[in-house]
Design brief:
This protein is mostly helical. It is built from five helices and no strands. It has a single domain, classed as Four Helix Bundle (Hemerythrin (Met), subunit A). It is globular.
Length: 105
């Protein structure tokens, strides 16, 4: 399950290079990997291979705490025409938080 950790590390490296767009993509991918693992362990066939689709699916997961549903929401927010996130959120930190919950449950 350390594939999601590798993606989070890539996200951090992208941020350090000043590439916030790539950091968002890696954070989203990390969460997608953790969601696939979570669903598989629950005996549920993941409905998609897309991290974006899986995040939208998890927004409806009854067992997911409300604060983590908000994280899933943040991870699916579209950037502006200037490629900026229209919310104030650290998607790497939030992705890590959601991944940790998914791995523990």
């Amino acid at each position: 399950m350390n594939n999601y950790i590798k993606e989070l590390e890539q996200a951090q490296k992208a941020r350090e290079r000043g590439n916030e767009g790539q950091a968002r993509v890696c954070a989203r991918r990390a969460t997608g990997i953790a969601i696939k693992d979570y669903l598989t362990r629950k005996g549920i066939q993941p409905p998609s291979v897309s991290a974006y689709d899986l995040l939208n699916y998890m927004k409806e997961e009854p067992l997911l705490p409300p604060d983590l549903k908000l994280v899933a929401e943040h991870l699916t927010v579209r950037v502006t025409e200037e490629f900026k996130l229209p919310i104030d959120a650290d998607l790497i930190a939030e992705s890590r938080q959601l991944c940790e919950w998914l791995i523990k449950n």
